[in-house]
Design brief:
The chain has 4 helices and 10 strands. The protein is an alpha+beta fold and 221 residues long. Strand 8 and strand 9 form a beta hairpin.
């Protein structure tokens, strides 16, 4: 099955997962690329996105699998150009290839979490963040499931973390987290600060996926 690598940035981060699926289905149609559909009363397009993004999160490493309709003759090299001609601003296909790896081999992802402080970074904030996120104690954070709220210890899912202070009002957390079974949304890191170290909690936080990785730490494609 063919696979796309695409990015979702800028104002496009506010497009929901379901709406993004519709964006791609329309883009395939407008680009003259017929996608295979299921049979039955309500046919569905054979299009799926790995690890759906939370609304508000940027990414430069999203993966989409699709299946061409029988008899469609189109080269994978031209698909990004044909799709990008109809995409909304912020959604851009970077490449396409045949025969992507099994999604179960995707184990971790790398992300950059940006913390912004209106009144400036607290004194000693970077060092305090390092100590907080590298401490051995459990780090429980509430997480909403489909049916209820549950408490999740995110410490085992946070595999590595590096901090930086690009300016007087900003701290960044470059982290590697588990992507599946279980998965950790990087936006739970600022949530952990609000719960356990409110003096370090930012006024605004945003996250950007940088890369999806396999068990060996290599880019997953």
């Amino acid at each position: 099955m063919p696979r796309l690598l695409f990015e979702k940035t800028g104002n496009a981060v506010w497009i929901s997962h379901l709406d993004l699926m519709r964006v791609f289905q329309r883009a395939f149609r407008r680009g003259g690329i017929l996608i295979r559909h299921s049979q039955g009363y309500s046919p569905k397009a054979h299009v799926s996105i790995a690890l759906p993004l939370s609304v508000g999160t940027e990414s430069v490493c999203e993966l989409l699998d699709f299946d061409l309709a029988e008899g469609v003759q189109v080269s994978l090299e031209e698909i990004p150009t044909r799709l990008n001609a109809t995409m909304p601003a912020g959604v851009r296909v970077l490449s396409a290839w045949e025969g992507g790896r099994k999604l179960r081999e995707l184990t971790t992802l790398e992300a950059l979490v940006t913390l912004e402080y209106d009144r400036g970074v607290p004194a000693g904030g970077r060092e305090a963040l390092e100590g907080f996120f590298h401490a051995p104690e459990p780090l429980p954070v509430p997480k909403k499931t489909k049916s209820s709220m549950t408490e999740l210890d995110i410490r085992p899912m946070l595999l590595s973390l590096e901090t930086a202070q690009p300016d007087g009002n900003t701290l960044t957390l470059r982290c590697r987290v588990t992507a599946q079974n279980p998965s950790l949304n990087p936006m739970l890191l600022p949530e952990a600060l609000r719960l356990h170290r409110p003096e370090l909690a930012p006024d605004f936080a945003r996250a950007r996926r940088l890369e999806v990785l396999d068990a060996q730490g290599l880019p997953f494609r």
